[in-house]
Amino acid sequence: MNIPFSPPDISQAEIDSVVETLKSGWITTGPKTKEFENKISEYIGIKKTACLSSATAAMEMTLRLLDIGHGDEVIVPAYTYTASCSVIYHVGATPVMVDIQKSVPEMDYDLMEKSITENTKAIIVVDLAGIICDYGKVYDIVNRNESKFAVSEDNDIQKRLGRIAVIADSSHGFGAVRNGKKSGMHADFTCFSFHAVKNLTTAEGGAVTWKSIDGIDDEKIYKEYMNLSLHGQTKDALDKTKAGSWEYDIVYPAYKCNMTDIQASIGLEQLKRYPNMLDRRQEIIRKYDAAFKERDVKVLSHQSDRYCSSGHLYFIRPEGITEEQRNDIIVKLAELGIASNVHYKPLPMLTAYKNMGFDIVNYPNAYNYYKNEITLPLYSKLTDEQVEYIISGVISILKDYER
Ligand SMILES: *Cc1c(COP(=O)(O)O)cnc(C)c1O
Known about the structure:
One of its GO terms (biological process) is polysaccharide biosynthetic process. Belongs to the DegT/DnrJ/EryC1 family. This is DegT/DnrJ/EryC1/StrS family aminotransferase. GO terms for molecular function: pyridoxal phosphate binding; transaminase activity. It comes from Lentihominibacter hominis. This protein is α/β, with parallel strands linked by helices. It has 2 domains: 12-265, Type I PLP-dependent aspartate aminotransferase-like (Major domain) (Aspartate Aminotransferase, domain 2, 3-Layer(aba) Sandwich); 274-398, Aspartate Aminotransferase, domain 1 (Alpha-Beta Complex), CATH 3.90.1150. The protein contains 14 helices and 13 strands. The strands form 3 sheets. Strands 1-9-8-5-4-2-3 form a 7-stranded mixed beta sheet, sandwiched between helices. Strands 7-6-11 form a 3-stranded antiparallel beta sheet, with no helix packed on it. α4 (83-90) links the parallel β2 (73-77) and β3. The mean pLDDT is 97. The protein binds pyridoxal-5'-phosphate (PLP). Pyridoxal-5'-phosphate is lined by residues 54-56, 80-81, 83-84, 126, 169, 171-172, 193, 195, 206.
């Protein structure tokens, strides 16, 4: 058997939809992208969504929307993908990295609170593996620290919020639910990824949604994202095709990270299939959970009476093994034809962040979580037979490492 780690689940419907878009005469941002934005809003139950070229772009444009830059600090977990943090550098702000909890890969909320200074403008919260974080705690903390917040008077959104902005990196969390609310309804701004390995894909792509802010028109925020992502141009390509409507203005020299209609046409078909795809992920998780329950292995809790994850990643953490043993297990799985992965090597262990002065010794929980973590294949196309094969492969390999 040869089981890849995370192939995209593309059906004939996506292929037909792309062909139709290609033949339609409109391939860049246009009607399909607007339709995809509306369908995402409807799916989540919020007012507006802006589709962009990636989650990275969505996070960076959100920081720009808030005028976060030089002299500002943004809090981010050490246990995440580089994009949650690199965007802070992109805008010229300073990342303040926080360790995770001992047994949960969510930021340590006490450390988060202690990291707040009068320069803190935002907290980027990561819904790892598709499990929505405890935003109740995050909001308690930002509200408690409101008096510390030094508002930038030039930015309407900062003024209206009057506190640290909460930005979710929910690249993994599209469709996840907590307390009856889907991802997109928890943070002030929520960023999703539709990259090829994510649950719902447009090959490359992303979106940002936000909770309505008192005194600020949702349309104004939407328009600002459009400006930011398309050169600061007052009319997009489609508006300009209207007869006689050639003239536009550039309001500031902005960026270029819009979504194309080709991508949106994939996303629209994926979205129709998405509830079934999510169900299949949970079904596989239940099989894995049942198989590893009696073993000396820690797994994430993807479901409880309060939440249901999007089932993006399945972590196993065999107890008592070293980093080297973990790497050996990954090689042995590969020899059985099972691709696995590690999520994540903590940011302070990567060259870019070491060069910025971060040191893993200051993030012991992140290191301990990482050292025995193995991510197993989990995707809607995985067959029952493959799941059984993975389970028996993992169990037979782990026998050699049991305490
Ligand atoms: C995939 C991923 C991103 C980046 O998503 P893109 O759409 O590729 O920009 C950001 N954060 C996390 C946690 C991710 O897994």
